[in-house]
Amino acid sequence: TQLLEQSPQFLSIQEGENLTVYCNSSSVFSSLQWYRQEPGEGPVLLVTVVTGGEVKKLKRLTFQFGDARKDSSLHITAAQPGDTGLYLCAGPYESGGSYIPTFGRGTSLIVHP
Amino acid sequence: KAGVTQTPRYLIKTRGQQVTLSCSPISGHRSVSWYQQTPGQGLQFLFEYFSETQRNKGNFPGRFSGRQFSNSRSEMNVSTLELGDSALYLCASSPLGAGNYGYTFGSGTRLTVV
Lengths: 113, 114
Description:
The structure holds two protein chains of two kinds. Chain A is mainly beta. Chain A contains no helices and eleven strands. Chain A has strands spanning 5-7, 10-14, 19-24, 32-37, 44-49, 55-58, 61-65, 71-76, 85-95, 98-103, 107-112. In chain A, the strands form two sheets. In chain A, strands 2, 4, 5, 9, 10 and 11 form a six-stranded mixed sheet that branches. A five-stranded antiparallel sheet of chain A has the order 1-3-8-7-6, with no helix packed on it. By secondary structure, chain B is mostly beta strands. Chain B is built from no helices and eleven strands.
């Protein structure tokens, strides 16, 4: 069972379109991180959201943390081919007294020129 | 500031062999974690080392082991390789542990078992 469910699993769009990807859980997280991973490379941290209801912007990317801290969304405005990649959400999961980041399976985004 | 360095980038091994992967974290980072990434399972946590001690361990068999040296460099070892061990192995470093602030990942080692 995945603690973090991401949707959609795949997304193929044209340059200039807007899109939203989701990260949902039945558990409360103290924070959530979003990463982007390009083929053949490791994930790169984009943002961390900590406060319920928090909204963070990174150029054309808008990240929101749900009020109950169980979900998050990533909205991309006017997508560009350079946005192509695997978008992963992750959150710290308490295990044995410490916190281990657990990852969703990701949303694979392709932006066509 | 140098990033997280993993070596080798690619590796092909035969079933039954063993393999050792290396990771040099960002200077000053004391926590190193290892993940296995496959298309079917996504990123699965292997273990975390902090100050040369294993602090957390995921649900992998004992064939997967690791260690951390006094300079924070880490190695992971997989013995008696199986075809299902083919994956991208990612090392991630953080100052004290990913906690609420996330990781810096290396580019990974692509292991193929034939």
